[in-house]
């Protein structure tokens, strides 16, 4: 195999001068994947790929002037473009306290993982045991209070898989869409829909055939099962009782809001949403089960910037929950809901929660 690799090594490289770069904005909590100019260091690296074992040619689709004047010397390190909240929480749990320069401290304090002097709280120590984003960890910790830890760790596992759980073959798009809609019956929201997917799969003894029939990614589900098994062990380790409360979905929703209260948005007159903290205009992702329903208040898992700023994995909430679950973060004026405002036709109504 090595000889074949050398024989057919790359001889021609065409460099457009751009790459897709993922970055994180700690102020807005938004991740974006944008096409950006490469650095001079990246250009040099690309040139080195042409003709490593024999003569090769390297073509740049930009001028020498662009190279000298428009490109940065080196690429911004990924550590400066990544959400470091989980890293800071882990460092705190290891006894490393000189972290004042990290922007993640504000979020950890809001989540109750740190006290006013920057020390780990009891909740913070429990959260640090989970190899998850701190908001997911907080969601799991709070689920103990609402006796729904079994459902919440399933949701956390499904959210941790990344990418889409469903797939949509070109020749069976209608069937795939109908299968996905079945999990959203009642406008329950994307988090509960993910829970329904996992629970239904579990009831079939983790059947591969069931995944095919419902247009669900088998690989994603297996990974979710592995993650859930690990989370279940960690839940017992931090002395959270595995309990189920499937008949009281508000308890599950409250657990989600308790972890993701910084990620909330309110419907506007034009059909878009406005985030409550650090206001910016966002939209429900088209793959969401609530994209046509447009509930008045929502909590979302993450923001992704593509053609617009989209909220992914969205669930409806009651605004009074924000005061109940995060009184240190929201004031009454933040969640006042003017019901007299005219909304888009059919909007502002979802599940009866």
From TrEMBL:
SUPFAM superfamilies tied to this protein: P-loop containing nucleoside triphosphate hydrolases (SSF52540)
Keywords: ATP-binding, Helicase, Hydrolase, Nucleotide-binding
Reaction equation(s) it catalyzes: ATP + H2O = ADP + phosphate + H(+)
InterPro entries tied to this protein: DEAD-box_helicase_OB_fold (IPR011709), DEAH_win-hel_dom (IPR042035), HA2_WH (IPR048333), Helicase-assoc_dom (IPR007502), P-loop_NTPase (IPR027417)
Keyword Hydrolase: yes
Enzyme class (EC, first level): hydrolase
Name of the protein this chain belongs to: RNA helicase
Domain Helicase-associated: 103-195
Its EC number(s): 3.6.4.13
Pfam families membership: HA2_C, OB_NTP_bind, WHD_HA2
């Amino acid at each position: 195999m090595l000889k074949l690799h050398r024989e057919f090594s790359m001889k021609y490289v065409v460099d457009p001068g751009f790459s897709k770069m993922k970055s994180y904005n700690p102020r807005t909590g938004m991740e974006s994947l944008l096409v950006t100019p490469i650095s001079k260091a990246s250009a040099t690296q690309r040139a080195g790929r042409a003709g490593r074992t024999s003569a090769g040619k390297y073509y740049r689709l930009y001028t020498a002037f662009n190279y000298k004047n428009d490109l940065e010397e080196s690429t911004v390190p990924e550590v400066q473009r990544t959400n470091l909240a989980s890293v800071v929480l882990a460092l705190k749990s290891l006894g490393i306290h000189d972290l004042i320069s990290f922007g993640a401290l504000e979020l950890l304090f809001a989540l109750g993982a740190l006290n006013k002097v920057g020390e780990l709280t009891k909740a913070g120590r429990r959260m640090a045991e989970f190899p998850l984003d701190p908001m997911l960890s907080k969601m799991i910790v709070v689920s103990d209070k609402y006796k729904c830890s079994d459902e919440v760790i399933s949701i956390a596992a499904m959210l941790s898989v990344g990418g889409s759980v469903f797939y949509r073959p070109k020749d069976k798009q209608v069937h795939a869409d109908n299968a996905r809609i079945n999990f959203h019956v009642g406008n329950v929201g994307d988090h509960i829909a993910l829970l329904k997917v996992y629970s239904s799969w579990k009831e079939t003894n983790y059947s591969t055939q069931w995944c095919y029939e419902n247009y669900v990614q088998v690989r994603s589900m297996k990974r979710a099962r592995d993650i859930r098994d690990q989370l279940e062990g960690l839940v017992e380790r931090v002395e959270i009782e595995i309990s189920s409360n499937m008949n009281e979905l508000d308890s599950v929703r409250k657990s989600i809001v308790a972890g993701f209260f910084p990620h909330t948005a309110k419907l506007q007159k034009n059909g878009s949403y406005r985030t409550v903290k650090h206001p910016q205009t966002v939209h429900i992702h088209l793959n969401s089960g609530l994209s046509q329903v447009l509930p008045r208040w929502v909590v979302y898992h993450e923001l992704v910037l593509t053609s617009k700023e989209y909220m992914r994995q969205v669930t409806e909430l009651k605004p009074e929950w924000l005061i109940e679950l995060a009184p240190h973060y929201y004031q009454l004026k933040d969640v006042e809901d003017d019901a007299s405002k005219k909304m888009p036709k059919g909007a502002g109504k979802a599940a009866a929660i």
